[in-house]
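Onboarding guide, step 5: your first structure request.
Type a short instruction followed by the sequence, for example:

Predict the 3D structure of this protein.
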Amino acid sequence: MLKKFLLLLLGASLLLTGCSATPTEKAGVVQRPLVISAIPDQDPEKLQRLYDSLASYLSTELGVPVIYEPVVDYTASVTAFKVGDLDLVWYGGLTGVQARLQVEGAQAIVQRDIDAAFHSVFIANVNSGLEPFSDIQGLQTLKGHTFTFGSDSSTSGRLMPQYFLKQAGVTLADFSAEAGFSGSHDKTIKLVESGTYDVGALNEQVWESRLAVGEVDTSKVIVLWRTPAYFDYHWVLNPNVAKDFGADMPENITQALLKLNPNVPEQKAILDLFGASKFITTENANYAEIEAIAREIGKIK
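The system replies with structure tokens like these:
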């Protein structure tokens, strides 16, 4: 298992260096690292930069080694959390619910300020002939076009878009071909921009951030519709953390995340990469609607 390997690796390092007590050693006992991760919903290089910065910050704040462990897909993040290889994971609404349902005592602890009222956007290639609309019934105009979601398990790139399509009376069979699954929000933008698909649905924050840095060709792709608000991304804490790091560690982690300050340059850089101005507390109950919708469309049995 990942944790056992890391523990042995840390122990071997301490023996070889002959160091006195360090942040990885307490009273002669090697302290395993706190392992954080995230669903791979964006470009891997962007995620690596973000979570390496956050791991460094948390290690300083918490006084324990913190490492970022990337995962190959959404399902792998839930599985690794279930078996105890991941301690703290940045999940979307759906994957957070899926993870908590498999680990008794897991808690949603913190979300960004934007996650209490999050949105998806439907985008279209300009050559599709589609025009922006302001009402959910406008989704009817997507019938007969090609369409892609993001990841199969994405809240903002699949679950909620499919829910709103259903509310408008549009089924997946109404598209001109089988609906695609791009795998990430960034890929959805590129597939629609290139004309591979007429329409796609994705995370509004990713869309806005890519627009801001000029990574979207607005001569080729437009926004059709912004969905109503819903709860989305959040940090989920494994109950093993209290057992392995002490009863006060969950609260220490929460406070460290809440403490991120946009007036401190290094911390602002982390918040900017998250697309947020601050983190706020959250709780499991906030995702009851997400769970209900996931059950309704068959993503949770």
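Each response can be followed by summary notes, for example: The domain at 33-115+232-296 is CATH 3.40.190.10 (D-Maltodextrin-Binding Protein; domain 2).
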